[in-house]
Design brief:
Helix content: 40-55%
Mean pLDDT: 91
Bound molecules: adenosine-5'-diphosphate, magnesium ion
Protein name: Glutamine synthetase type III
Pfam families: Gln-synt_C (PF00120), Gln-synt_C-ter (PF18318), GSIII_N (PF12437)
Number of domains: 3
InterPro entries: Gln-synt_C, Gln_synt_N, Gln_synth/guanido_kin_cat_dom, Gln_synth_cat_dom, Gln_synth_gly_rich_site, GS_Type-3, GSIII_N
CATH architecture of the largest domain: 2-Layer Sandwich
Oligomer: single chain
Radius of gyration: 29 Å
CATH superfamily of the largest domain: Glutamine synthetase/guanido kinase, catalytic domain
CATH class of the largest domain: Alpha Beta
Structural class: alpha+beta
GO molecular function: glutamine synthetase activity
Largest sheet: 9 strands, mixed
Low-confidence stretches: none
Family: Belongs to the glutamine synthetase family.
CATH topology of the largest domain: Creatine Kinase, Chain A, domain 2
Number of strands: 17
Shape: globular
Amino acid sequence: MSTLRFHAIKESLAYKPVKIEEVERRSEIFGKNVFNMKTMRQYLTKDAFVGVENAVQFGKKIDRNIADQVASSMKDWALAKGVTHYTHWFQPLTGATAEKHDAFFETVGDDLAIEQFGGSQLVQQEPDASSFPNGGIRNTFEARGYTAWDPTSPAFIYGTTLCIPTIFVAYTGEALDYKTPLLRALQAVDTAATAVCKYFDKNVKKVTSSLGWEQEYFLIDKTLAASRPDIMLTGRTLLGHTSAKGQQLDDHYFGSIPNRALNFMRELEKECMLLGIPVKTRHNEVAPNQFEVAPIFEEANLAVDHNSLLMDIMGRIASKHNFKVLFHEKPFAGVNGSGKHNNWSLSTDTGVNLLAPGKTPMSSLQFLTFFVNTIKAVHKHEALLRAVIASASNDHRLGANEAPPAIISVFIGEQLKKVLEELEGVTKGKLSPQEKTELKLNVVGKIPDVLLDNTDRNRTSPFAFTGNKFEFRAVGSMANCGNPMTVLNTIVAKQLKDFKKEVDALIDKKDLKKDEAVFNVLREYIKSTKDVLFEGNSYGEAWEAEAKKRGLSNSKSTPEALKASISKETVSLFKEMNVMSEIETKARYEIEVEAYVMHIQIESRVLADIARNNIVPTAVKYQNVLIENVKGLKEIFDKNFKNVAREQITLIEEISNHIEGINSNVTKMIDERRNANKLLEMDKRAEAYSKKVMPFFDEIRYHCDKLELLVDDEIWPLTKYRELLFTR
Ligand code: ADP
Ligand code: MG
């Protein structure tokens, strides 16, 4: 009997839900472990508080004296909560979060020790940066990096550590993390959007980008997961025959959340409350053992930090509940994948959501302006948006069951499409008073009503307008939202900047009124962006053909998709918007390409190992049982044995064929890997891994999965899909 698998199954069945102490009201513990504005008001002097407030709201620099005060108060607050260490918490380009803990504890003179934490330690640290990816930046420049305090995301306590959100940059200033370019992109969109808002409301001083992510994930029994080397090493199953019962019945989606999982969620939510992560929604997803958690949306930088933090604590809490969380976009073949919808909008400091139509025709025109400009930005940069969601793991999801395709298009619903069509007919140049009134009252003015009963949904769209926000649905569940948010905000910023230039030109040179100019520019945008709008089924082959005609890109693999992230246009876009220098843009590309190669390389090695060291020996073992059986039959039935042993003999042959299939394909795959590794240029190597190595995954898997159906269940070594997916 395959001991590990059966031992794991036995153990997994014995797990009981872990008891959770519920608090009386969650709202009472919300943000209790966060050094937020409310706490700061309590702990900081007035000067220090105003200093931080100015930094948060207007990006003003915090001087040394204020930093010292903040640090000292932060320390007092943390010590009172039993904290012993502090860390600069950051998001290097590995996809995980990083921290290096230092104790507050210091010795001063002989025998004397105190708790110390000064402004300099708060503001800047130098982690051992050599192990984080830098895309060659630190080979050409100074070989050091440092972390610097980001006051816009409040410090928090996790366990007994005070975590200070920071950016991570090279000594020469280049960004080495996700946060730095994001902060620059948010600045860019603030500047561009505020300028455009002034057409409609002079009082607007700041525009903030909001993000509400929806995190999908699988919860797999910890022991069962540990029995599968592929899950442990790659986050997904590289083989495994589909379970007889999968998600066909959709009974998981509508069913109640199983108890063990529910208790995990309750503890997770409680921890989120303490950390100020406003999680609100929990539910089952389409696949068995698949779930989703979503918060109330927040300012984008904070939301990105909260998502990274959530992913981190989910792993730890899951382990306490004897689960392993799988964030991989496609952990199981033939089963729904996981995404992370990024719900995005822009709002003003006067409290207006720029992607929600207002009550007056003027505010609806403002809505329309931001709505159409976003569509225009997506159209112009569709390839870059595809690039920013590209990863080895998301490649498996895009275009599969319940997931958007690799073609970026925008869904706005039939009603809004009609509104745009009407606007196409706006007269060129000056508008008659009648036309203006007609437009404002009967076209633009009607939008709020249109939206109210327009609950159109399209689950196949990668970028959908959903009433008062856009939902970027193609983002992978494993991704750091910082990346897609950086790109989205940057392209919209650039678009708004261009829009303003065009409108101003019409006002200055053609003597148009403000609203006339806006209508005129929007009309042209609507005409030129039709190709990116798609309301139909994005899964169909018809759409692939249609999208090609429309000139939309359709990059099926990461190496192909990533090319758009270093195109001339992209480099100059990031440069112009002060989001990334050419060096930074190119370094990121290098890192992503290399990550892709490593990812596929590891998967390929693990697959070869399992196939040769687990599957083949098991098949041989079972084949020997059959051979013994046939020999026995021959003894009993003598010449007539072939009749009685026909099935067994066929099985023996089939098993031999599959063993041969595995061995020859593994050999060929390893050869291709060797060839790929000889390629010195990383993008060539990535392409070789994608085109030459990866195709063997399916071949090898095919034979292994066939054997799973043939070989005695009692000796099959790998925990099966039905066990992984239906144990709860
Ligand atoms: P679903 O897409 O599953 O129907 P909802 O639309 O209710 O779910 O919300 C999904 C996410 O969108 C939540 O995190 C929610 O807070 C967020 N969201 C709602 N309104 C906005 C907005 N104006 N800007 C950004 N995110 C938003
Ligand atoms: Mg959604």
